[in-house]
């Protein structure tokens, strides 16, 4: 994929995920999550050459300073990745992120070990991770799953799941298997409160 095609895809991804986006120019100039991804692509390319790893880390830290998003240059990130509001996101060295993934602010894809092994999460395709969520260790988040805001995940999550709570509790995402969040018989229309 050419540089310009990838750039256009990034801008369209941001526009698709953020209803507040008004133009590609606005996105290109003002979206720190997108800027962090662009810096990561450069630092990751440098990281692929062992003799350029110091430069890769330096570029990565400059990106962190400018955007508030820290992505280790060793992390592997798929296409159409989007970070909404960006600030406070941390993605560790051995993290692997699939395609069409969306993170909100304050997300950590962190490690639980000091050993030089796979110690960060693997996130499948089409996963959404809510604000403040912490996914720790070499766990796998299955495709088409969602991690709720402020959830702490330390165990694998199967595909098509929703994870909420501390520690994260998993439930199926498919509607026929979900229980309603509110008992319909006790529901009171908020319009009646006025």
Automatic annotation (TrEMBL):
<comment type="pathway">
    <text>Amino-acid biosynthesis; L-cysteine biosynthesis; L-cysteine from L-serine: step 1/2.</text>
</comment>
<keyword id="KW-0028">Amino-acid biosynthesis</keyword>
<keyword id="KW-0012">Acyltransferase</keyword>
<protein>
    <recommendedName>
        <fullName>Serine acetyltransferase</fullName>
        <ecNumber>2.3.1.30</ecNumber>
    </recommendedName>
</protein>
<keyword id="KW-0808">Transferase</keyword>
<keyword id="KW-0198">Cysteine biosynthesis</keyword>
<dbReference type="InterPro" id="IPR045304">
    <property type="entry name" value="LbH_SAT"/>
</dbReference>
<dbReference type="InterPro" id="IPR001451">
    <property type="entry name" value="Hexapep"/>
</dbReference>
<dbReference type="Pfam" id="PF00132">
    <property type="entry name" value="Hexapep"/>
</dbReference>
<dbReference type="InterPro" id="IPR042122">
    <property type="entry name" value="Ser_AcTrfase_N_sf"/>
</dbReference>
<dbReference type="InterPro" id="IPR053376">
    <property type="entry name" value="Serine_acetyltransferase"/>
</dbReference>
<dbReference type="InterPro" id="IPR018357">
    <property type="entry name" value="Hexapep_transf_CS"/>
</dbReference>
<comment type="similarity">
    <text>Belongs to the transferase hexapeptide repeat family.</text>
</comment>
<dbReference type="InterPro" id="IPR011004">
    <property type="entry name" value="Trimer_LpxA-like_sf"/>
</dbReference>
<dbReference type="InterPro" id="IPR005881">
    <property type="entry name" value="Ser_O-AcTrfase"/>
</dbReference>
<keyword id="KW-0677">Repeat</keyword>
């Amino acid at each position: 994929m050419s540089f310009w095609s990838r750039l256009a895809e990034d801008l369209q991804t941001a526009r698709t995920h953020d209803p507040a986006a008004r133009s590609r120019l606005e996105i290109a100039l003002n979206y720190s999550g997108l800027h962090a991804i662009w810096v990561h692509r450069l630092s990751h390319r440098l990281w692929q050459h062992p003799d350029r790893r110091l430069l890769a880390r330096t570029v990565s830290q400059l990106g962190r300073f400018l955007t508030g998003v820290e992505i280790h240059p060793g992390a592997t990130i798929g296409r159409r990745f989007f970070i909404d509001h960006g600030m406070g996101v941390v993605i560790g060295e051995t993290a692997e992120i699939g395609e069409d993934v969306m993170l909100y602010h304050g997300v950590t894809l962190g490690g639980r070990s000091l050993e030089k092994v796979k110690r960060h999460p693997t996130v499948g395709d089409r996963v959404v991770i809510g604000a403040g969520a912490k996914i720790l260790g070499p766990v796998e988040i299955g495709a088409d799953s969602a991690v709720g805001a402020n959830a702490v995940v330390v165990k694998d999550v199967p595909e098509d799941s929703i994870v909420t709570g501390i520690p994260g509790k998993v439930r199926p995402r498919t509607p026929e298997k979900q229980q309603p969040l509110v008992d319909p018989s006790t529901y009171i229309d908020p319009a009646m409160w006025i």
